[in-house]
From TrEMBL:
The keyword Transmembrane applies. It comes from Clostridium hominis. Keywords: Membrane, Transmembrane, Transmembrane helix. Residues 74-123 form the FHA domain. Coiled coil: none annotated. The chain crosses the membrane at residues 6-27. This is FHA domain-containing protein. Pfam families: FHA. CDD domains: FHA. The keyword Transferase does not apply.
Length: 150
């Protein structure tokens, strides 16, 4: 009779250990999903771009050679709700939007009065950007950088 109680007790202990291991690994997997947003990032440089302020122009709040990473939409304009605020009268309230989509960077003119220029050519609507492109809005000039160059 003692042997059957011992076997039952040992089976219960083994069951509890297995149950705790399953819970531990499930929580570990859920933590990784929450931490990374459920996305597997095989290339950490994917969708990582930056805008370097090459020339501040008439914008006192901009610091030349500083870099802003592109994470989501970056809006540029005179209004306080923009990511990059330009204080010039030649810049519209919401002048331009820069964003990454499918590992490609775009800039879009938001129907500004004076337009945007990429590599000294006026942009209509939106266009793709590449590393080294120069964006001119008002008297400010930005250079597109890739994450591995930051």
């Amino acid at each position: 009779m003692n042997i059957s109680k011992l076997i039952t007790f040992a089976s219960g202990i083994v069951f509890i250990i297995i149950l705790y291991l399953i819970i531990y690994y499930a929580l570990k997997i859920m933590y990784k999903d929450v931490k990374t947003g459920g996305k597997k990032n095989t290339n950490p440089n994917l969708n990582k771009y930056g805008l370097e302020i090459t020339k501040a122009g008439g914008n006192e709040d901009l610091e030349e050679e500083s870099v802003m990473l592109i994470r989501g939409d970056v809006t540029i304009g005179r209004m306080d709700d923009n990511s990059i605020i330009l204080s010039e009268p030649f810049v519209s309230g919401h002048h331009a939007r820069v964003y990454a989509k499918n590992n490609t960077l775009y800039i879009e003119d938001l129907n500004s009065t004076n337009g945007i220029y990429v590599n000294e050519e006026k942009v209509e609507g939106k266009i793709k950007l590449t590393t080294g492109d120069e964006i001119k809005i008002g008297s400010a000039i930005f250079t597109v950088l890739r994450a591995d160059k930051l």
